[in-house]
Amino acid sequence: MPSTPKLLTALIGCLVATVFLPSGTADAKSPNVVFFLVDDLGFMDVGVNNPDTFYETPNIDRLAERSTNFTNGYAANPVCSPTRYSILTGRYPTRVAATNFFSGKRPGRFLPAELIDHMPLSEVTMAEAFKQHGYRTMFAGKWHLGPSEEFWPTKQGFDLNFGGFSRGGPYGGKRYFSPYGNPRLTDGPDGEHLPIRLANETADFIADNSADPFFAYLAFYSVHTPLLAPKPLIEKYEQKARELGLDTRDAFADEEQVWPNAKQPRRVRTLQAHATYAAMVESMDRAVGIVIDRLEALDLMDETIICFTSDNGGLSTSEGSPTSNLPLRGGKGWVYEGGIREAFMIHAPMIQDVPDSCDVPVVSTDFYPTLLELAGLPLLPEQHLDGVSLVPLLKGKTESERDAIYWHYPHYSNQGGFPGGAIRVGDWKLVERYEDGAVHLYNLADDIGERDDLADQHAERVAKMRSMLHSWYQDVDAKFLRPKENGPMPWQP
User: What predicted TM-score, i.e. pTM, was given to this entire model?
Assistant: First the structure.
């Protein structure tokens, strides 16, 4: 039985649909929606953002040619579950203490902030909003938004679910190959490759529902660890690295040390040359191509909104450190740009002459109101209250009504990132550390690598941005580090 808020919203949605749409269902001309979410893909991993990338992403680049590429697009958090929450709800994850990957409670000098382990059922997800207006909905891939079945996709607005459950990676069976050991995905032929299977399920769903509006959400497990890919593709990139003369023995540099007693110093990858990771990127890109090809074969591209993004930055400082995000600093698990700046593009065929690119800062909470407006459906401002519709930007506007974008990560990341928050206002970004309250100020237009700390030179700007950040903490009821038993007190804002 849905929660009371969901029932109330559903009733309102039905009333609105009755007034604006025939028979309470979506109009036959309502646009379809396909949403691609890639796990751990770095901003610099795709050709549209990095022409010199070692990886090959022709299908993503093909999509980019028909889309607006947001070059300052962000995830709401530097790790997975919180950003996934932000996309589906239009809210900052801090509002419900969903500030780390669910189950991530690793301590450091202090204990991390309190953390929930699921997306509340009271949220009216983007899928539910479309379903209320007659759309058929499906989910494929990684969910990681709740520990048990009551919190999985079919309880959150999706009619069908292929592979979404509690785990944050393909850790059962043969992992990225069938048999999968996944309770929400039947096994295919032995050795079947997971991203291709998920793409085929999505393409078949599109074909089966081509006569009616559909909402398809393909959240790849790729390119998350474990680092596994088809052998021929791995060999292809091993050969490519040799031909390019890439020396992987000197592919790392020092990074700051958050764990003072670590057995080995934290290092960050500086060179894209990891053959297995490159093969994983290409496999994922091929899967994107399968879905786009089906849309084209069914003559649906001009009737379908397509979004593409990632949940956090590329993995560059741990777990094999398979990619480099340079010139961006850090990666997954860090509030530096490498951890939060994402590939972020929207194909909106109902808008004429959309810009090829847009440099206005945007964030993952914005997809929800944007998609509703593009589809001609009523907005739900009490639900997606932290999202801003990007339709004006898609129509060529060059400024946003938003004052700032905020981040809050009161945890010690598995990747070595420090507990901290950040705020971006225009070209300026302020980073605040939660262990001691230290702050850093960067001008991203001049210093995208966040190496030149200007805090001492701009005291007034620091004070103003910090005040905005602290006011936001209060607005979203942010939680912070806690002391260990008989230990010192951490800094508090």
Answer: 0.94
